[in-house]
Amino acid sequence: MKVFLCPNREKLAALTAALLAAQIRTKPESVLGLATGRTMEAVYARLVLAHTTQQLDFSRCTTFNLDEYAGLAPTDPRSYHTYMHQHLFQHVNLTAEQTHLPNGMAEDLSAEGVRYDALIQQAGGIDLQLLGLGENGHIGFNEPLASLSSRSRPVVLAPETRQQNAGLFDGNPDSVPPRALTMGTGTILESRRIILTVSGTSKARILQAVLEGPVTAQKSASALHFHNNCLVLADQEAASCL
Ligand code: GLP
């Protein structure tokens, strides 16, 4: 695992976007793993800019998102489908056929997880997976004590995750869906390259625990130590406890 520190949030977003853009330029048919959350908003804004001003071409890419809330329709304004549409998909040359998120409305959520992993395999596996870090150390929605070899599946969200993500739900953690579908930690680790982008003082302690502490199912991000091509990008605030 390599760690690179950026002076501020803007440079962090710029570097993350530049690495993703370089991946697309080097391999136009890249399979990209995408993440949601506030940290990624500035990353997607820069990719949109690169598309409009530097002809960054997504036309041969395929994308797979990490997760989606259970029970939210793709058209729900609080869904990750909507987030991705608003922040990236509608602004670049990606069609609906090229982009994938787990279907939170699937009747059988376990079968949906199996289907999602199979789709990733059929696409040839993920070339570059973007990740954010949850304040409890999760990647995707792989909450504390989930198996580090888990596959894509339905999960119960931890109370702190519902608290952290309450912003889109009128600030009320009880309104955040209790369950979600997530790519498994094992699935994530199969990506050929991984970039974990971490920003802000609220992530400083957990980033320190993930980077300097033991590999533990208590923090699924710690499993990234097992990956042979994982880059951690952090701004000064997030790196303040290292
Ligand atoms: C959610 C997502 C994670 C993401 C995390 C970080 O929990 N499921 O995949 O990494 O948010 O979010 P933020 O960037 O808003 O701190």
TrEMBL record:
Its EC number is 3.5.99.6. The keyword Nucleotidyltransferase does not apply. GO terms for cellular component: cytoplasm. InterPro entries: Glc/Gal-6P_isomerase (IPR006148), Glucosamine6P_isomerase (IPR004547), Glucosamine6P_isomerase_CS (IPR018321), NagB/RpiA_transferase-like (IPR037171). One of its GO terms (molecular function) is glucosamine-6-phosphate deaminase activity. CDD domains: GlcN6P_deaminase. SUPFAM superfamilies: NagB/RpiA/CoA transferase-like. It comes from the Bacteria. This is Glucosamine-6-phosphate deaminase. It comes from Acetobacter cibinongensis.
